[in-house]
Amino acid sequence: MIYVYALAHGLRQAPGIPGIDDAPLTLRRCAGFDVVTSEHDAKTESTEEAVLAHARVVEAMMPLATALLPARFGLAFDDAAGLEAAVEERAGDLEASLERVRGRVELGVRVVGEQGEPRRASTGRDYLEARRDQLAEVDGLHDSLAARAEASTRGSSGGRLVLSGAYLVDPERIPTFREALEQLESEHPELTFALTGPWPPYSFAAVAE
Amino acid sequence: MSEPARPLEEQVTLLELVDRVLNKGVVLSGDITLAVAGVDLVYLSLRVLLASAGTMDRLQLSNGDGS
Known about the structure:
The structure holds 2 protein chains of 2 kinds. By secondary structure, chain A is α+β, with helices and mostly antiparallel strands. In chain A, 34% of the residues lie in helices and 26% in strands. In chain A, the strands form 2 sheets. In chain A, strands 1, 2, 3, 4 and 5 form a 5-stranded antiparallel beta sheet that branches. Chain A is elongated. Chain B is mainly alpha-helical. Chain B is built from 3 helices and no strands. In chain B, helix 1 packs antiparallel against helix 2. The radius of gyration of chain B is 16 Å and the shape is rod-shaped. Classes of the chains: A alpha+beta, B mainly alpha. Chain A binds chain B through residues 1, 4, 6-7, 43-48, 51-52, 54-55, 58, 69-79, 82-83, 85-87, 89-90, 94, 97, 108, 110, 112, 115, 155, 159-161, 166, 192, 194, 196-197, 199, 202-203, 205-207, and chain B through 12-13, 16-39, 42, 51, 53, 56, 59-60, 63.
């Protein structure tokens, strides 16, 4: 079984680290893409260790490639022909996605709100209004950050997690992004912000279904 | 042999990382063998860890004076 870590452009060699289950990494050329893989006898065990090994390989590829699309954990093929066919089938979309992320990194932002009900919620109507205000406020947060990014995407939120966003940025614009976040943080002392990254562009790697 | 608890920043980073590796990234159609067994458990344990109010309160404290 051939396990796939990421597809890339401009990769001359696989990273010099082991893959999942300490399997050696192999660089394959498929339909014009550089694909980093490892071979396994059976299905990959989905342990935390395996997930971290996958992440380490993708991370190690970042400085080696000119553009990189991380694969989702568990992407594997029975043989080289299967991999080649699957890559070839989506070559156009993959190319477009690679162009979009070229030279860019992903930043993650999580915003956590206060515990309990929204303020001013003495009646059902007040509650709905407060809730609507809160949603608009969160949209505003996301929009301010998205304005500092080349692309952005929002994940699901719920409970105290009011925003889970991913932002694709040029590395030299990270300080600007951070300043924007600090500004929002000072405007919203009631919210807790967590900034992570820079990540390989996992959230911007999807190809159209 | 018990390891010390992971620092909070590391926990947040780990959640973000696992979220990305498991839920984002390229999926190709065709001859796919998705290995899913066990993944939900790994993910869930981290998620629960981070979503718990206690954890978030500590995050708030670590960011400043608290409220």
